[in-house]
Amino acid sequence: MAPHKTPDATRRSDRSRRAILDSALALVGEVGYPRTTIEGIAARAGVGKQTIYRWWPSKAAVLMDAFLDLSARQNAGGDGAQDPGQPEAGPGIPDTGDLAADLKLVLRATVDELNDPATAAPTRALTAEGIIDPVLGAQFTEKLLDPQMELYVTRLRAAQEAGEVRADVDPRTALELLIAPLMHRWLLRTLPLTHAYADQIVDHTLRGLSPRS
């Protein structure tokens, strides 16, 4: 007779959490954030509502963790779309010695991410909900946006040390010159978001940041 094996509760919990996170992202992409419910996420994940409420207080909290998990898996080289603002899987923005080329690579990747339905729907949902819910908005900024923005700050400071960017430029303000136009066009949906547009943003921005002759 085969020996009895005790069920692995940790493994079962991990499977449930994974199913819940994946279901939250899928539902938001399919039906939109307003129509996504805890009940719907639970049904799709094959768990009870109380299982979700044991770990998260709201659907917004579930979506936040699902999006952070998606980003972590992408950065680790796993499947899934990459979050907006993160240029590529890896620890930071490339530094090839050519600032324009590095920034164009980053912004082109960001365009691809913003145009990807897998990340567009949850990003729009979190952005909108963060305006209504200041606590969620602060978490979204702290956990997702600030770490990404710091990558730009680090690259721009390196460019300052190399003499490619004026010493009096504030890197945090400079990165907003790069990111804000993309987000503005993406949020309004009035004009297409393209690689060519990303390249133009870099060219125009660097004209303002470069040392004067």
TrEMBL record:
Family matches, as SUPFAM superfamilies: Homeodomain-like, Tetracyclin repressor-like, C-terminal domain
Cross-referenced Pfam families: TetR_C_11, TetR_N
PROSITE patterns assigned: HTH_TETR_2
Record feature DNA-binding region, as residue ranges: 37-56
Keywords for this protein: DNA-binding, Transcription, Transcription regulation
Highest taxon, organism lineage: Bacteria
InterPro entries named among the record's database cross-references: Homeodomain-like_sf, HTH-type_TetR-like_transc_reg, HTH_TetR, Tet_transcr_reg_TetR-rel_C_sf, TetR_C
Gene3D superfamilies: Homeodomain-like, Tetracycline Repressor, domain 2
Region entry Disordered, spans: 75-95
GO molecular function: DNA-binding transcription factor activity; transcription cis-regulatory region binding
The UniProt record lists the keyword Transcription regulation: yes
Keyword presence, Ribosomal protein: no
Residue ranges occupied by any HTH tetR-type domain in the UniProt entry: 14-74
Protein name as catalogued: TetR/AcrR family transcriptional regulator
